[in-house]
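quick one, 351 residues, struct below
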Amino acid sequence: MLMKPLTIGQLKARLPIIQGGMGVGISRSNLAGAVAREGGIGVISTAQIGYDEEEFSKSPIETNLRAIKKHLQRAKEIAKGGIVGVNIMVATKQYAEYVKAAVEAKADVIISGAGLPVNLPELVKGSVSKIAPIVSSLKATSVILKMWDKKYHRTADFIVIEGPLAGGHLGFNPDELTDIDMNAYEEEIKKIIDFKKEYEKKYNQEIPVIVAGGIFDKEDVKRAIEIGADGVQVGTRFVTTEECDAPDSYKQAYINCKKEDIRIIKSPVGMPGRAMWNPFLEEVAKGKVAIKKCFNCLEHCNPKEVPYCITKALTNAVEDKLDEGLIFCGENAYRLNEITTVKSVMEELTV
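---
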């Protein structure tokens, strides 16, 4: 299969592979820089990106804003001219400040999901950063493109369609994830591709469509291209690479996991998520896990009501306390069986 480069405005990635943003501490500068260096688009997750900084406990938001700039700079140094961007959840408290920090650091792309990024065009106005919403349906795509068109007189630079097999937070109802219909999902992708043509014509620009969720091998990439996508976003495959920012214990958890360990859970974000079943989730299933400190990470999180602190759960997982942590993963994580390299993964997906 001949892989076409992925072109987003003036940006051109040699390979049509975007590395998915995975937080906390899974995709930071090291992984994003390595993917960009190999010809893809590397993406840093801004979710509690400064978790290991000394000042994080006292002032998490300020620490994160500094860390965004630091990791973007590091990733660009590693990338040697490759394309590096960020993934910023709309649900993030002080979302606008996170976007502005990425813009100041000259992020090549800003990808935003976990809610609809309705004011993202305003926040990047006059910058070099290209923007993309993460959507899971034609309805969400229609809402965001119509709103950006009407309010900001512009459109998306590209669109990421995240499917039901993805890891982490999912833009689906729980019942849609119990009996997944991939044929229906592919039809939704085709509808979105057809819908965005109206805005391509109006703004005289191409709007590449990137398919995400469950992309594991070359056949998955080939299928995505066949149904009309311009590229794919891959997360899980990159976790078990030497360059991934996660600790070895985290990577080993992926290698050791079995298919039955991967389940749909309810996240404090208010969305379903896909994660690895472990002692922590066993504890959550029995009742609320005590929250001793609020890290001000999510806009609509009430510590008195949520079952556990998602920041604490995710940071535990990357601080070698896996049995006390939340381990997000894609549906195909059980298929991983070795530590490899970013270069090898890119070759497997494209050659």
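The chain has two domains: 6-246+337-350, 248-335.
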